[in-house]
Amino acid sequence: MRIKGNPTWIAFSLFSLFSLFFLIAGFGWAIKDILHPPSEGLSLKKPRQERGNSTETALLLTLGDSLTRGTGDPDGQGYAGRIKESLRKEHSRISAVNLAVKGQTSDQLKDQVRQPRVRRLLKEARWITLTIGGNDLFQNSGQSETIDRKQSEKARKRYQKNLKTILSVIRKENPDTPVFLFGLYNPFGDLGQKETSNQIVGEWNRTLTETTEKFDKVVVIPVFDLFQLNPQAYLYSDHFHPNQKGYQRMANRLLQAMEENSEEVSAGAR
Amino acid sequence: MPADEEKILFVENLSKRIGQREIVTDLTFDVEHGEIYGFLGPNGAGKTTTIRMLVGLIRPTRGKVQIGGYDLGKEPLQALRHVGCIVENPEMYPYLTGRENLEIFGRMIEEVTPDRIEEVVRLVELDQRIDDKVKTYSLGMRQRLGIAQALLGRPKLLILDEPTNGLDPSGIREMRRFIRQLAREEKISVLISSHILHEVQLLCDRVAIINKGRIIQIGPVDQLLEGDSPVEWKFSPLDRGVKVLESLPDVTILERRDDGLVFTRIPEDCIHEANRELLHAGVKVQTIHRKSPTLEDIFLQLTEGDSLA
Amino acid sequence: MRNLIALVYNELLKTVKKKRVLVVLLIIAVLIPVFTYAQYRTVQTTIQQMGTSDWRSILQQQIIDNQNRLSSNRMPEEWKKLVRLNIQQQQYYLDHDINPMAPGAPTFVRKFTEESISLFLPLLVVVVAADIVSSEHSAGTIKLLLTRPIRRWRILLSKYLALLLLVSLIVVATAILGTLLSGIIFGYGGWELPVFTGFQEINGEMITDQVHLVPQWQYILMSCGLAWFSCTAVATLSFMVSVVVRSTAAGMGIMLASLISGSLLTQAAPSWTALKYLAFTNLRLTDYLSGTPTMIEGMTLPFSLAVLSIWSLASLVVAFTVFVKRDVLA
Alpha carbon A53 to chain centroid distance? Predict the structure, then answer.
């Protein structure tokens, strides 16, 4: 007969042993999962599709730069957040995806819309809104007062080309969904050289409108006028981005345009 | 394979060098069945190093240890199977009870059963306190628990390093009684190391005396400790008495101390004659006393004075 | 074999009765409520600041905060890269409507495991491991152990096996106590919550084509497994130190110093790439699961596992060689 252990400590030892096996299993699983991820789970398509099919969620896809991101809005909502709230009142199931990146230029957006996951979202979207061009305009033309006309011209040409590409990609992925493109405004309209800056922004806005005319169901939302008379009241303290009120005004404009479109949208919905 | 059935322990040319220093040099000795063997030497003589080599804690640089016929270097498990030991202090796990300690060490030897634990606990008379934590034990109780632990595997050889160290006089007496009882009743050979001559004298059958890592004498205790130990005199007047003693042929004056004590080497049968001569010369003899030999004396005798200098 | 089981049982009994394990469990039991409360406060504060409990706006705000941090030119490039990747990941969660912070005991445990893998858990492991051999030396009981008719390597092996069991116990106990205690505040739901994994970083780009969802319970199981591996490596190194140094205090000091400097160094000098060959810079294995970018470039899961394994194996070789050969002098 051998010396017996105390049942408590035998139980304790067995528990430790069980823990060991348990953890080795977890470790093995982790290794397998990291080195050889399960093939059926390769992308996020699956869960999303399931959700889309079962509940008919309407997707609001917002693209572009800091204006869509909501920079300057203390709530961090921007126009995109406000639109989402408004749409929620009418559509019980709505999801919003904001792909905007602060400081994004048309060059970068062009690359972004080509990414597979963005293309997937474009396909699913019921509304697409975008703000683009502000960074092209004000970075390339020397930011503020000192405006280099030559540089600005070059940037405008480039912008035109990029915008065309972006809209083509969107239309290719999703021919039916309305696309709402915000126009540009002049945040320096109350500073020196305002004539020059107003003139340039005007030129860019014309370019923007001309480019969109070639595409079906692309709606330009002009905002130049919103910030023209009293920029102080609607701009954030950085004197560049809209503030809360500014975003509200932008959202109001967009909503109006969306309502005009709504019948058309429901008629053309998939 | 058991080679020499007579000897439970057989040590040959055992040496240990650490760095440049040779701590133990060419020890050769043996312990017979049922014998209590003393390993006597001053502190630092190499006793502990030797004992650690006997139980496999230290690897010898050279030499051979055979326990129960098994070579410790080649078949350590069979060799150690026959040994129970306490090296230096009886260190047990203080946060466990005496019984838990014994169970832990019992699990490490195949044949130990719960009954055997009960048995050794009774043997060392710890039954009352065996379920108390070891940290509440007195040193004597720890020593006994240490011995219980050493006895668990029914060893044929018990190795105890300074077993009475730190014990009070009654504890020492009890320990001595216990060791003798073990050797007699359980037929266990015991190897005891000590630096106290008296203890070895009272307990051991044979003794090896070790100094500076070498064995300087091996023999039965009685033999080893017999012989001329100094005789101590006290008389007055001092100078005249010393002269008388010096004149006698068989007497050597070893030392003349300031407090009036004179040490002499003198054969037993000459003492009364010396005493008579002193009386004749009108010297008043106050004490004649044969000093019992100390370890130092024996060393002096064996090494003619150069060992402990 | 039976013999070995008895030896392992002995070692477990000793460690438990010495109250080492109890101390460790107590530390966990005291600290988890503290962390739970901290987490609770953080969530509350964020909600208050945002004025809404909608996690989407919180996440959105975090993204914007991160973007703002990016525009500061005081930030070193390595950090910027990290923040950029972090933004991508947060954006991913947002885009797919998955709340990465959904409160609940499982979420807390998942976060806690990720946070504690590089320092907290290893420290607890060191408390147990640094002591397991050296305490026998300082108490003198090593003499009793080594004079048994048992080979020395078996004695050391039994100690190492006991240590592996104790490490497992610590990791599992952390998960269990974490669930039980944090659930009091956060509730016990959320085991099925889908969690992203499979983020990969190649040349500073977050590669997302292998991203997939796993239920949170599986994610926790996997990160506990990875934490176990890290802790085992730490335990093995401490074990070696415990054998070589023979003093519990010195061994613990050495291990704590190395652990802490390991985690400090990666933050202080991420450009010093040779650091990735150290054991303690590779402890954050859960980062490969969550997709948190590594501080030093060129670190992957197989790389970290290899580094940790090599250190562990070397430690074992040293530990066993020293233990079997060494004379027990004092």
Answer: 23
